[in-house]
Amino acid sequence: QVQVVEHGGGLVQAGGSLRLSCAVSGSTFSSSYIGWYRQTPGKQRELVARFTSSGVTKYADSVKDRFTISRDNAKNTAYLQMNSLKPEDTAVYYCNADVPTGLWDQPYRDYWGQGTQVTVSS
Question: Distance (Å, rounded) from C-alpha 66 to C-alpha 93?
Fold first, then answer.
């Protein structure tokens, strides 16, 4: 069983920082692709940051140079360091793990965490 659990959300003032963590269990973490997404009411879930298949990081333009995605394979945990937070960053943040299945015709399966609320006050 694969489980994805986010932690670290909370209330922070504009300009502040927050670090989210994503613990992935029940999988070969080092072989999994990790991404962070966020969603606000009435809006589609959007990509914030993720590792590509080649290991290169990808960021939404709105968070580039402010957010940093990282991972610690020894701890089976990924992180999202958020600096210079803005009120528009307020959202529920979700961790996504693209986990290898071992199946040749379906090599990966997506798993999602429950989300963690990030609120940035002005």
Answer: 16
Looking at residue 119, its amino acid is T
CA distance between the termini of the chain:
40
Backbone angles phi, psi at 36, to 5 degrees: -115, 135
Residue identified by tokens 């069983």 is 1
HSE-CB for 85 with a 13 A CA cutoff: 23
> What is the per-residue pLDDT for 52?
80
**pLDDT band with cut points at 50, 70 and 90 for residue 29:** confident
Q: Hunting for tokens 């990790």 — which residue is that?
A: 34
What gap in Å lies between CA 30 and CA 88, rounded to an integer? 32
